[in-house]
Structures are given as structure tokens and as C-alpha cells.
Task: structure prediction
Amino acid sequence: MNGSDGPLNDDALQAPRSAALFAAAGRVMPGGVNSPVRAFGAVGGVPRFIECGTGPFVVDADGRRYVDFVLSWGALALGHAHPAIVDAIRRQAEKGSAFGAPTALETALAERVIAAVPSIEMIRFVSSGTEAVMSALRLARAVTGRTRIVKFAGCYHGHADSLLVQAGSGVATLGLPDSPGVTAAAAGDTLTAPYNDVELVESLFARHGSEIAAVIVEPVAGNMGLVLPRPGFLEALRRISSTHGALLVFDEVMTGFRVAFGGAQETFSVAPDLTCLGKILGGGMPAAAFGGSREYMSRIAPAGPVYQAGTLSGHPIAMAAGLATLDEMAKPGVYARLARAANAMARCAEEEARRAGLPIRAAAIGGMWGFFFTDADVRDYASARTADARRYARAFHALLAEGVYLPPGQFEAMFVSLAHDDATLDMAKVAMRHAFARIG
Result:
């Protein structure tokens, strides 16, 4: 067998209940899902409909249990149904689900975030990462009086029109072009550069510096697969942005509270002007935020003229779940445990690929890990795209058959949680050995 072959099994037979649910969903929802990557379009077969999750495991509608390395795309740092989160949600739900009015929970979580992330002095809660990024860039344009944004090919910052230009995540996974419905005017204000390419960024600023409001970047790229920043890359973005009077925006929706308690900016000692957070921030509930200096954030309505609003922003249940999550994440040794688990899985992927005669590049940072089937160095979206995505699809299905659930697409990071103990990791390692041997 080789990487060009299709999936290893007939999913409709392997997962009949999921297949039936997917068919029913397709009659009432576009593609049968509410977020594109979930449809398994990049790997083929039937998406598994999940019934429940506990700790590091999920169970699908056909009763099969999987070690979960998706973890709601990184949101579940404590694993599924953690008792502290369940209790926080239950206690708040008993008091009321939403009020459309301020609650003390918002202030408590804001104070916790500000204490954890040194570059943030004030924060605004929203309901999704897309909303956080969209609002942060609106603020950056207002602060600078400029219109253009620099982003990096393969970095995904949500589905706002101006950011669906060479976007990663589902756009990359599904092989879609820049999305229909995005106008030339919206896309025209977005300049792109390869991730890790300082010279190209300097060239863009040399040509358009007086027009550029902000540089936005995933400090650790997780939406083209896991790609780490090269030494000096983030520092260079800080220097270039400051020199030209543009704002540096870190999209830490994925990395915030995952690679370190203070996010990637703590890990790399680079302070952005604005930070976008999400995922872990809400403890698995829909919550996100953007924040920065008091000077900049004071421009947000009603304190200032930059309008932003949301009916469910600061949702009490999400705030309660977020507080309970950060309580757990602040405990001693948490990030060392996550890093050990992620590194163990990356090393396992390398070892089992070599054993099976497969080319591979693997990486890990904090509670994130991932791999590409390639002999080449992966430093940006272009090099990530040279990896063997068909072989990844085969590995995905082989691991699924072994009881391991990876992201259903090459261009996504993988995650571990505090619930992924040594016994669970050992199960996943054995599964990886069997799966890689099947596709080698």
C-alpha cells in the first residue's frame, strides 16, 4: 500500500449509526455539519457522530470509544466532562442561563486573564474567535487611522471576509479558493506573506508601511498543521510593527492558556499590542475575547467610539466554565504535564513512522503536537502543502480503526489534555504502531 491509496475501510459498514445520522443531517444542514472540517471531506468516509465524552475519551453513536486528540479543537485542556467544569456549569445554570446584563463573573474572569497575560490591561468578551479577531482589527484600524492588514498564508483567523485570504484550517483542508462572497474590496486590504518569512514582511512594509494598520499572526501556527515560529520571527514582527507605527496582533485563540498560562507571548517573551483569546478561555463553552492596553481598549464603546456589541457576550455559563478551567490550569505542574504528553506523542509518531519506513516531520509545544508525512522541513503553508495528505487520510482511518481520533484533515493541530495520563498515551502509542505499520 502507499500514500495514494484511499481509506482503509468502508465507514458506512464500520459506523452504520453515524452514517445514518450523517445522511439525515445532510438533508437539513449544508454538508450535514455546522463547521466544514467535521464532514471528513479531506479524509473521506463518514464523520463520527459523538454521543459523549469523558476524560481523554469520546464515544460515537455506534458505541465505539476513541482516545481524543481533537478535544473540541483544543478547547478542552482538562479533558471531557471534568467535574469542576460540570459543577460550575450546573451551579450557574440553576441561577439562570443568560441575562443580557452585567454579572460579577465577567469581572472575575477579566481580572484572571489580565493577571495571566501581561500585555492585556483591559479586555472585552465576545462569543467566538472570529468575532474577537474581527473586533481587534477594527480597533487597530481605528487606532492607526489606516486600512491594511498583514496576515500570513495558512494562518486562519476566523471567517471574516478580509481574513479569508490564503486562510488555513478548513479552507486549507477542503482545498477551497478564497471564498465566494468575499468582495475584491474586502480582500484588497489584506496583504499576505509566508509564515516565518521576515524579509517578505519587511518588503510589504517598505511598499505599504503608511497604509498598514496591523500585523496579525498565530504565534504558533496551528491551522496549517502545527508549525512552530522560527527563532527571531516573532521578535522581528514586533520590531517591524513598532518601527512603522502598526499594531501587532497575536491570535492566541488556540495557544492562549495552552502553551503556557500566559500564552505563546509568555513562551516567546514577545508582547503584542492586542491579543485574541478563545477555546480554553471558555472551558468548552462558546467564549472568546480580545484585549490590550488600557489606552487602546478605552476606545471600545461605550467608553469610546469603536463600536462592538453582542447579545451573548460574557455569557454567565461560559464565564463560570472559564473561571473553573483557569483555576485548574493555574495549579503547579500543569504545563509540564501537558508538554510531556505532547512531546511523547510527537516522538512516538516519529519512531513509528521510521519503523514503518514512512517519511515524517513531527513537532510539539505546550499541549499541542502534530506531524506531516514528508521528508522536507515544514516552516510555512507552502511547505506544509507538500506533505502527503493522502497518506495522512490513510493514517487517520487506520488510527480510527485502532480507537484513536485525530483531526480529520492534515492542516490541523493535535492536542492533549490533563486527562491524557500515561496509560491513555500508551494505548495511543500501540495504536499508532499498528496503524503506521498498515500504511507503510
About this structure: Residues 53 and 80 are 5 Å apart (CA to CA).
